[in-house]
Every structure is written in structure tokens, then in C-alpha cells.
## 1
Amino acid sequence: MKITKTQHSRITAFDEDSIPFGHLFSDHMLVCDYASEAWQRPEIKPYGSWYMAPSSSVFHYGQAVFEGLKAYRDARDSIFLFRPDENAKRLNRSAERLQMPVLPTEIFMEGLKTLVKLDSDWVPRRFGHSLYIRPFLIATQEELRAKPSKTYRFCVVCSPVGAYYEKPLKVVIEQKYSRAASGGTGYAKAAGNYAGALYPTALAIKEGYDQVVWTDAASHGYVEEAGTMNVFFRLGDTLVTPPASDRILDGVTRKSIIALAEREGIQLEQRLISSDEIAAAHREGRLREVFGCGTAAVVSPISALHGKGLDIRLPDLGRQSYGKCMKEKILDIQYNRAADPFGWRLRVV
Ligand SMILES: Cc1ncc(COP(=O)(O)O)c(C=O)c1O
């Protein structure tokens, strides 16, 4: 791997007391191009812009996929990644769905480790803060034809971040728009999925909600995801989460919560759940808790759920909350505050 270090570090601009999510980028980035049907030598170089022709196919046909994961610093200044192999695999599932070349796992893993090591001063010190890592893959061929590009760029940039959501979320169950349909690209982290979600989300925000709960495109009766998070419902003492499918992103946090719940002896069901069932459980006093989960927010409590005749407010369960318990357990593993029985941590520094 070629490494060119910056001569002008911007680290003094990094103030851990004020780090809005995704605004500031670390000193370096990883770049690896695909051309002549082969991945070229990866390179780490100073973070910065590059030239792209206006005819580059990503701007027209949207071959763009991405990932999101974080680096965490422990009390002794060691730095860890959390299940990065899962992100490497998912990037390639996304790439395959968008007819893009598969990236060798070694380029992903070695690239991330070397980049985070080089920019380790950018990994925040405070518990709960972290260095957000954004790998992405885009089509770069200069041609206006709706066909797969022959050239691509894989790039990784990093951004120090604090909390994603400051307070519990008010969400609305979507009854008109969809983020994904069967046979579509919902399971892929395709940039276009996020573009398509912006308009319905903006409408929901205008109505006073924080996020949309996506429902199945065919009937809008079954819940699927909460914004850019997977979603869990606690009915009595059982956690229910919709099964991963071709419409739902197979989240690393979701997978981790499922494994932790099993270990803790918490009943967990991966099955379809309808808004009618949620309404009935609420009427019967069995709907105790709803939360979203994802890398950015870890676990985000949902305090109000509206739409389709629902007007549900959920009190904070405090120490009784499964969401809080799962959040604590995941953070403890991520920040090396607890044993790592599943082997999820990868030490970088
Ligand atoms: C649509 C969607 N669902 C769920 C998730 C949560 O996935 P993960 O836990 O891997 O971050 C994300 C975030 O990546 C997402 O964009």
C-alpha cells in the first residue's frame, strides 16, 4: 500500500466538545481504483477532493454503495474496530446487487486498519464518541449509457463523531411511500435507497416527527425499518424484530443485539410484525418498548409512534429497558470495558 502523509495536519480543528455528526474529516483517506478488470494498488493520501468528469457514470446511473462503521478508543488508548468483517461482506453484497466489482476483503481490512492507525489522533477520547468510518464504492467511467461502468473507485474517509440522536424519537408509520420493494435493492447499502427516503422523511419532519417507520411496499401493513435503523418491539418480555429480507438492511447492530439477547436469555422472535398487532399489544398493555438500532445511534429509544390509527406514547422504562441494556452491553464490548465472548473486537492500535 502506498502511503503519502499530509504535510498540513488539520487536527487542531478537532474539538471534542463540539463535533456535529459527519462534518469534520480526518487527515487521510484511502483510495483504490478498479481498471482493466483489476483492482489497482491501494493508496493512503491526504484527505482532499479529486477531479471527476461530469459524464462519470455514478452521476447518471447511480452505481454507488457505501458502508458505515466506527473506531473506538479504550481507557488505555488502544483502538478497536467492531465486526469490520461484516461490513466488508455487506459492501460486496451491495456491490454485487449493483453489478459492481467485488472488493478483495484484504484491501478493505488492511486499508481500514492502516488508515485508522495513521489517523489515530482523530479517534475521540470520550466514552460514547468515536471515529466514524465511511467506505464507499462508485462508478467512474466517462460514458452516458445505462450499463455497468468499467472503472470504479473505492474510497474510505473518517469523521470524529459524538451522539447521533440526542433524545428519544417520535416516529410515524409510513402509509404511502416505500424505501424498498421485494426484488429491489433494500438489502443493499445503495446510495439511491437513501435518496429515495429523503422526500417522505422530509414530509414526516414537517408533520413534527423525527423519522419514518418504513412498511412493506405491498400492503403498508408490516413494519420493516425505522429511518436508517433496524427496529425492535418489546411485547411483554419478548423482543420482536422483522426478519432480514431483500427489503431490509441486515444491520450489524441488529445482529449483535440478537446474539446478546440470546446470551442473556431474553426471548427474541424474528418475524413479521404488523401495525395492527402493535396497536392491539398497546391496547392490551403488552407494548412496553420500541427502539431502533444502527452503527451511528447504537440504540435509539422510540417514545412515540403515530399513524394508521395509532397514537402511542411509551414511558421510559429506566433500568428495566431492554434497549438500554443492549446499548450498554454493545458499548462495553466496543470500548473494551467488558469481555468479548463473540470475538467482535479487532484491535488496530
Ligand atoms: C437502512 C438501514 N437500516 C439499518 C441500518 C443499521 O445497520 P448497522 O447496524 O450495520 O449500522 C442502517 C445503517 O447502516 C441503514 O442504513
Note: Residues 68, 225, 228-230, 249, 251-254, 294-295 surround pyridoxal-5'-phosphate (CB under 6 Å).
## 2
Amino acid sequence: MDHKNIVVIGGSKGIGLAIVEQLVSQNINVTVISRNINEMNTHPLIHYIQKDITRDDLAPGELPEIIDGLVYCPGSIVLKPFKSLSEEQFGEDFAINCLGAVKSIKAALNALKKSESNPGIVLFSTVAVTQGMAFHASIAAAKGAVEGLTKSLAAEFAPTIRVNCIAPSLTNTSLAAKILSSPEKVQAAEQRHPLKTIGNANDLASMAVFLLSDESKWISGQIMHVDGGMSTLRV
Ligand SMILES: NC(=O)c1ccc[n+]([C@@H]2O[C@H](COP(=O)([O-])OP(=O)(O)OC[C@H]3O[C@@H](n4cnc5c(N)ncnc54)[C@H](OP(=O)(O)O)[C@@H]3O)[C@@H](O)[C@H]2O)c1
């Protein structure tokens, strides 16, 4: 993937940061958009743009002229009984998980069309779309929309731009910190998974980097279940 330009929305921490680290280790240029800038800021292959993707617009010319891949990582985990989930919360979750991705894809689309390197878009869903889970109504609704967006855009942009989505189960990042706030909670979460571990950022980043690479040039419109077996196995 030498000399490719990849844009990672939400590449300052968590899974997005692991994606950025894997990409630069392959000598790929990365544009990172996030609200905070981290120490990778000084890396010669990384260009940071500080923005809140739900509020700020991307001005013309801010992104590379040719983009070979786009990953959208911002997301939320707000778990509450349905009666405590306000309509505003549903709106906020939809905004960060789905509308932010829509905005990013719109901003990058012309530059993605110019790529001659099997360009790809990678979005993030959650295991809670395939596997119904109590208290996940808002996030499952928002990510269900992301899965629909993935398939619809994959059809619309074929054969030029591939669009795929990764649906993780619980992964050890700051987003999941509340759910993993004690050794007991971590152990219980591990035991719930058929493969008896929770995910780490690199488990998901490896799939994202694969979906951006030429190795996946015949894959589009797919939801990749990287989830320790959670969505499909009963052991
Ligand atoms: N971790 C899990 O257990 C889990 C499970 C299922 C699905 N997922 C999904 O996987 C994806 C990645 O999750 P993660 O755990 O890596 O999340 P994370 O650790 O919270 O990282 C999210 C990234 O997005 C950026 N971001 C958040 N809001 C933003 C905004 N408004 N504007 C610009 N950048 C923003 C954050 O940077 P700043 O804070 O600097 O802006 C950060 O770089 C998400 O879509 C999540 O829903 C995660």
C-alpha cells in the first residue's frame, strides 16, 4: 500500500489510533481528524486536522486531493433501559455514529473517486445489531443505520469505491472504560465471549487495514463480525 493516502476520522485514540499506527508502519500517509491531537502529531506521515466532526465542516482543500481510503471511527456506548433513554439521546447517538460518517463520506467522495488503488471506506457498527442485547436500543438503532448505509453505498459506489463495515464486540478502549472499570467486570466480559477474551484495538485495526488494502479488492458491502464469536456462536 505504498504512497496511499488514507483518512482516519477518530484516529487519536482507541481503534482509530491502532489503525493509524498500523498504516504508518506500512509507510502510508494518514490524515487524522479528531477533537484532540496526540503525540503522533509530529510523525512525518501523519497530518492532523483538529475538528469536532459533528459540529465543524471540512473546508474544501483540507483533505488530500486523492484519497485511497476513509475510516470513520467516532462512536458512543450509552447503555440504559429503554424508559431512561430520551429521544434526544437517540438523536445524539445517531448524529455521532451515522450522520458524522455521512458528512465525512460526502467530504471525501470526489477525492476517493480519483483513486486508482481500489479505494475503500470502512465504517464501524457493533455486535449489538446482529445479537439483540438489553439496554442497547439507542446504539443498536444508530449502528443498524450504519450497516444499512454500508450496503446501500456499496451498491451505489460500485465498482469504483468499496464500502465495508466492522461490527466489534467489547473492545478495551477508553470508550468501553465504564463497562471494564474493575478486574471482575473484565473477567465477566471475557467469559461471556465464546473465545473467552474481549477485543483489543489491534484486533479491530488489523481488519480495518485489510479492508483498506488491495488484499480485499473483491470485498464490498460486507459487515465483518470481529467479536470473539459473540454474534454467531453458542459454546
Ligand atoms: N470499544 C468497544 O467496545 C466497541 C464496541 C463496539 C463497537 N465499537 C465501535 O468502534 C468504533 C471505535 O471505537 P473506540 O472504542 O476506538 O472509540 P474511542 O476510543 O472513543 O475512539 C474514538 C475516536 O473518535 C474520535 N472522536 C470521537 N468523537 C469525535 C468527534 N465528535 N469529532 C471528531 N473525532 C471524534 C476520538 O478522538 P477525540 O476524543 O480526540 O475526538 C477517538 O479518536 C466506534 O464506532 C464504536 O462505536 C466499539
Note: The chain has a mean pLDDT of 97.
## 3
Amino acid sequence: MNAKEEMDKIAKEILTCTRCELYIHRKKAVPGMGALNSKIVLVGEAPGREEDESGFPFVGRGGKILEASLGELGVKRSDVYITNVVKCRPPKNRRPKSIEVLSCLPYLEKEVLLINPTVIVLLGATAATYLYDESLPLTKLPRAKKLEKIRGIPGQTKIQGRSFTAVATYHPAAVLRNKKLKTKFLEDLKLALDLARFSCSSV
Ligand code: SF4
């Protein structure tokens, strides 16, 4: 089975998944999307309304900000792989519960292991909370403070015994709400791209 066939198989599992209660509320489950040979995987929190309706990740206003930011750094959206921690929209865009995240993480793990990126970009506090393997004692900090503390500092994500370089930054929706975060957001994305020694011709 080649990489595309394997990813299609993962997507098919996601589309019919009933592992957690979020399946009850969804219109469409939203698997990840993008280049399967990308050196970078970007991980958000969960699908929103537009994603739930379309079945594609980051197609709403947050997605536009992400796409524009990547564009400012010379990277096309189609050059990278974009996904979420949970693949179904939580009602009213609430934060996913731990049980939902833990139920869904095996899909993200499969996506990452198949793509085998150099860098994982953690978009927002949920992705950072579950996937940033910190050496600093940050776990007792509130989510927002924790993200502020670790953003822009290369860390690690461990998946099934394998370590990947991780860069945490703001969720594009937060950048949308607070334009002052845009500069730091761009800096963090640039750091991730530099760490991956990213070039469009290499993906
Ligand atoms: S959020 Fe994940 S685990 Fe829950 S139903 Fe959707 S695909 Fe399955």
C-alpha cells in the first residue's frame, strides 16, 4: 500500500468513526489534508463550522489567516500537511474534552507517522497541551500562560516512542481575534520552517 492509499484508509476510518460523542453532532468528520511528503505538519484544535460543513480542515477565516501567513513566508498551503487534534467539531466550538482528545489522538498519530515530518507545529493551547513534551515544569500553568511560555521555543512531541521537533504557537483564530499576535505568529512559523530547512522544491 503506498502513502496515499494508507492516508485514504485513515481518512475513511475517520469519516465513519464513532469512538467519542463528537460524532453525534458532526455534519462531516474532517481528516487532515495536504502534502504527504511534507517536512511540516500543522496541528490545530478541532474543526469549526465551515470545516464541519465542508469536510476540509482550516477553510474558515482562521484558515485564511494561516494560508496568508504561510504565503508571506513563501510557502503554499498545498506544500504542507494540516490537521487537527480532534477530527469532529465540538458543539458550539467548545474546547474538546480530554476523553475526546484521547479517543481521537490515534488518528493524528497515524497521520504523523505516515508523513514523518521534521517539525510539528502546534497551533494553539489544545495542541500544545496534549502534544508539547516539555522538559520545563509548565503543566501547572494555565493554558494561555503555558502557551505564551513555550511558544517559539523548539520542543518535542513524542509519538509511539518517536520524537519529533515541535514548535508551539497561537491558533490562527486567536490571531484573527487579536491582530497584535500576528508578528509572533509569523516568527514562530518561520522558526518551524527554518528548523525543517523547508524549501518548496523539497516537498
Ligand atoms: S472526534 Fe475523533 S474519535 Fe471522536 S468521533 Fe470524531 S473522529 Fe472519532
Note: The CA atoms of residues 8 and 31 lie 9 Å apart.
## 4
Amino acid sequence: MAAARSLGRILTAAALATLVGCAREPPPSAPPVVGCLEALRAAGLAVEPWAAPGSGACRVEAPVRLARTGLTFDRPLETSCPLALAWLRFEPEVRAIARRETGLEVVRVLHMGSHACRRMTGNAGRASLHARALALDLAGFELSDGSRVTVLEHWSDRGPRGRFLRAVAKAACLRFAMVLTPKSDRFHRDHIHLDLGPFAGCDA
Ligand SMILES: [Zn+2]
């Protein structure tokens, strides 16, 4: 009996330790800031410091400025480390989808920025994920033949360019919390919005 009691105590202690362990963990939607810069550097990226403007609801945790990841950006990407890392992990999928759908390589990412201290479109009561640079607005891509595929021009295209963009949005739904596209509303007619939550949705 004594053995059983002490086993019970051990199990209770183990359960408590698990609970305490869980309590210390960030919620699933919390962006992984800890270790993020190290992960970017380990991937060989030149991470420039960026004095992100904004405070309070517009404060950017671990701000980074990247001229390129594996791909070049049409203008330096000023964002949060978690968003940069999420993009870095998604990028090989974008390249593979481009190859599959167009037979071409992606050489440049066309974007409309990550950080903007503003309210959510269509929901003025909530700060946009852009306020903390936890979102990215993708306008399109430049391909290895020099042509550009843009959300504004090619989202509804029935050919390879449209298929490429729509497949990128679909794939993004597995990597990002919220994916908004021209299917969402008129605010997104020219870009694909990707963010890291906490709200989830997939308009691909
Ligand atoms: Zn956006």
C-alpha cells in the first residue's frame, strides 16, 4: 500500500510538473521570439538591425531588416524576426510551386510591407497584425524570364501564373495563421496577406 501511495505521489508530482511546464509555455499562437535571431543567422542570413518605429500596440519585438533571404526582395523587408523566420521556412515551397506551375524560378519577391501602425481593415477596433510586424503583404513575384506575376493582374488568370499565385496562397494556409486574398474583400485585391495569428483563416 505504501508503495502504491508513493507511486501515486510520484504520478501526482509528474502531472503537476507537466501542468507547470505547460503554464510556462507560450500559447500556440505566440510568435517564437526566443531563439529567432539565432535561427535567422544559422540560416546564413545577413540580419541588419532595424530601429522599428512605434511603441505600445505598435511595438515590434525583435525587429529585423533583410535585403534578401534565399530570394531578393524588391525593397528591404523591415519586419519582426518571427515573421522573417516564417517567411524563410515558407520560401522553398514558393519556389517549388513556381517551378511546378510555370517552369520558372522565382528571383524576386514583390511586397507591400510588413510593419504599419494601424487598425485592422474591416475591424477598426482591433490593431492590425501589421502593427507589430507579424504580417506580410505579398504583391507578387518576379520570375527568371524577367516577367512579373502580380496578385492584382494574375490572381484570376486561368493560366500558370494564376495557378501559381493561388497555389502559393493555399500552401501559405498551412504555414501562417491568416491568409487573405482577393477572394476576401476589395482591400486585398492586389496582395496576399499572411500573418502569424492569433486569428486563423484561409481565403485561398
Ligand atoms: Zn496585410
Note: The CA atoms of residues 5 and 195 lie 49 Å apart.
